[in-house]
């Protein structure tokens, strides 16, 4: 964790672009393409705004939209702030980049997700982790025949940067990224500027099939590969790396997954919890297990009278070098005991499933209590 208590001055990039609120989205995309940056800063009189590819995509028929109407106001930082603090802000505000300001409010640089992934990679923090320890197992996917308009809707709805394109048999054949759609619309803006308005051309572009605009080939990684291998691909500029097992898609690794794991490192197990059998889990995963348990118990503590949490880890079977894990999780709260048990070859995923089961049980009880409270309130009225 000490790696992420370092100042962001060593992570900050000085490659940034500052535009005015009156500048257009088309101009922003042009400069983003040429400058190789994922976002532009927008200088208002007393604040700094941010516009990235997702903002541009949300703008719809975007080339002439003004940046002042698209910009989001992100949190700002100073060079002495820590990498951990910035990581938490990137996750909580769901942005890719944040500005770093000087004492007079001038922009000194920016810190983005890929920069933090590079920092983790260079410091060696990723060593020992496997792709399966961090991957997201429910990526957004679509069929090759889906239109670009539908892909845009999926991206905006899910807040992702890409949609994976799968054939009917589940084979991964490509990926449509925000940039793929923006490039099509941007090319229209260029033609309009040279030969005049072309009515309806943007709509026709968005009616194109995903298979005609998707990026391919796609860089992929195996489920048992080192996480550092995925990080190298991300650092080269790929926000998302599909994860395959036996040639089938089982998940994705994104810069967001890694930054989120870093942001959670200061969630320490200060709540009442006992572990039995923790030594059976690979040592490099202990920190992630502690974080997952602490986050769940904190949610319990905010919504219930938490007394105690208990985690029991068991070995059920060993097949070659693989171990089959069982997690028995219990939480004692006022007037209730929640129990869950999950098994699997991957300890972090099995534990996560057990913890989610506990949360679902708790939510059902809370819903019943809220309904009962409303009924009592109505009767008093």
**CATH architect. name of the largest domain:** Roll
Main sheet: strands, sense, barrel: 4 strands, mixed
As laid out across the biggest beta sheet, the strand order is 12-13-14-15
Please state the overall shape, judged from the principal axes of the Cα atoms.
Answer: globular
Q: What is the top-level CATH class of the largest domain?
A: Alpha Beta
Number of helices: 14
What is the average per-residue confidence, as pLDDT, rounded to a whole number? 84
Low-confidence stretches: 188-200
Radius of gyration: 24 Å
Summarize this structure as a short list of keywords or feature phrases.
381 residues; alpha/beta; CBS-domain; Double Stranded RNA Binding Domain; 3 domains; three-stranded mixed sheet; 14 helices
Care to describe what's here?
The chain has three domains: 121 residues, CBS-domain, CATH 3.10.580; 123 residues, CBS-domain (Roll), CATH 3.10.580.10; 114 residues, 2-Layer Sandwich (Double Stranded RNA Binding Domain). With 381 residues, the protein is of the alpha/beta class. The relative contact order is 0.10. Helix 5 packs across helix 11. It has 14 helices and 15 strands. Helices cover 41% and strands 24% of the residues. The protein has a four-stranded mixed β-sheet. The N and C termini lie far apart (54 Å). About 3% of the residues have low confidence.
